[in-house]
TrEMBL record:
It comes from Mycolicibacterium brisbanense. The keyword Flavoprotein applies. One of its GO terms (molecular function) is acyl-CoA dehydrogenase activity. This is Acyl-CoA dehydrogenase. Keywords: FAD, Flavoprotein, Oxidoreductase.
Length: 342
């Protein structure tokens, strides 16, 4: 899943420059315009519909770059979720900034990312055994503004689905949308965990306590080692899920394999967040809790993102379900992605 180093450097430079001028959740319109000029707003969209035709490898790098610099921007919600859903439903995409919302039977959805800042919302709602999709103007829905723990817009949305015709889509499309949304957050969480590790290592080396750097104390070394181990485990699990998704175009032929790997990635990322955030704040001490230090920008994101598109408990439950369904004979094959008959 290698990405052109020049492209990766350009992405990082864009977000770094933005953070020099703006706070994490400010300057969205300016940044969105710049990303659009660079072809990054619809990075994975089909070229025939105005996209850049890139893969999830490039999209993941874009998400990592934004998260690394603590820049809040709805590129995942727009490109990987909303616009992809329109393309999957055979609907026109256009240039409007979008997010997506999975509605319940009453037409409501809670904590929808970036709904209040979007121009249009791609809504999905159940229709008997399948679903329907519609692209609606944000002014036609009822919004209640909200924020997650990182200060990003997470809004309640209520839609009168009875007034919409919608385009029918099979349940498999919505299942893939759920996988994509879940993996997006895993990628973002892993990026901020890596940034927290970097900040913590730097602080431990530079902070002098009792005449020597914090990094010389064995207790601090253990804390940092645990951060590194858990961040690496989460990243490895997420990379494995992403690799399988890209290899199979999000439709693994092995029954349940991709769903299992996504659940592993989300569970690992969720539990790693607990260790990384706790240990990082212990190593930083009081300075890590101040607004002046940047640590909180990343720990707040990790804690907020790990519970979006499924809580840690829900992903743990999903893993339990996969394991019990596979049974003693199929569990090893599920874990190793091999055929138990060979």
């Amino acid at each position: 899943m290698s990405v052109d180093p020049d492209l990766a450097e350009m992405m990082s430079a864009v977000f770094a420059a933005h953070r020099e001028r703006h706070a994490p959740t400010e300057g969205l319109d300016e940044l969105w315009s710049q990303l659009g000029e660079l072809g990054l707003v619809r990075l994975t969209g089909a070229e025939t519909s105005g996209g850049s035709g890139a893969s999830w490898a490039e999209a993941a790098e874009l998400l990592r770059a934004a998260a690394w610099h603590a820049v809040s921007v709805p590129v995942a919600e727009h490109d990987l979720l909303a616009c992809w859903l329109l393309e999957a439903a055979g609907l026109e995409v256009g240039d409007a900034r979008r997010t997506a919302a999975l509605l319940d039977e009453s037409g409501a959805a809670w904590a929808v990312p970036w709904a209040a800042t979007a121009e249009r919302i791609v809504v999905i709602w159940p229709d008997r055994a399948a679903f329907r999709v519609a692209d609606v103007d944000v002014t036609s829905v009822r919004l209640t503004a909200g924020r997650n723990g990182a200060g990003e817009p997470r809004d309640a949305v209520v839609v009168d689905t009875g007034a919409l015709t919608g385009t029918p889509v099979p349940a498999s499309v919505v299942a893939q949308w759920r996988r994509r949304a879940a993996l997006v957050r895993a990628i973002q969480v892993c990026a901020v965990l890596d940034r927290i590790l970097t900040l913590t290592v730097t602080h431990a080396r530079e902070r002098i306590q009792f005449g020597r750097p914090l990094a010389k104390f064995q207790a601090v070394q253990h804390l940092v080692a645990d951060i590194a181990a858990d961040a690496a485990l989460a990243r490895a699990a997420t990379d494995a899920a992403l690799a399988e998704a890209m290899r199979t175009d999000w439709a693994s032929s092995r029954a349940g394999q991709l769903d299992f790997l996504v659940a592993v990635a989300r569970s690992c990322a969720g539990h790693a967040t607990s260790v990384v955030v706790r240990n990082a704040h212990q190593v930083h001490g009081a300075i890590g809790t101040t607004r002046e230090h940047r640590l909180h920008e990343f720990t707040a994101r990790a804690l907020a993102w790990r519970s979006e598109y499924g809580s840690v408990q829900s992903w743990d439950d999903a893993l339990t379900e996969h394991a019990t369904t596979a049974g003693a004979d199929g569990l090893w094959a599920l874990i190793t992605a091999t055929d138990s008959r060979t």
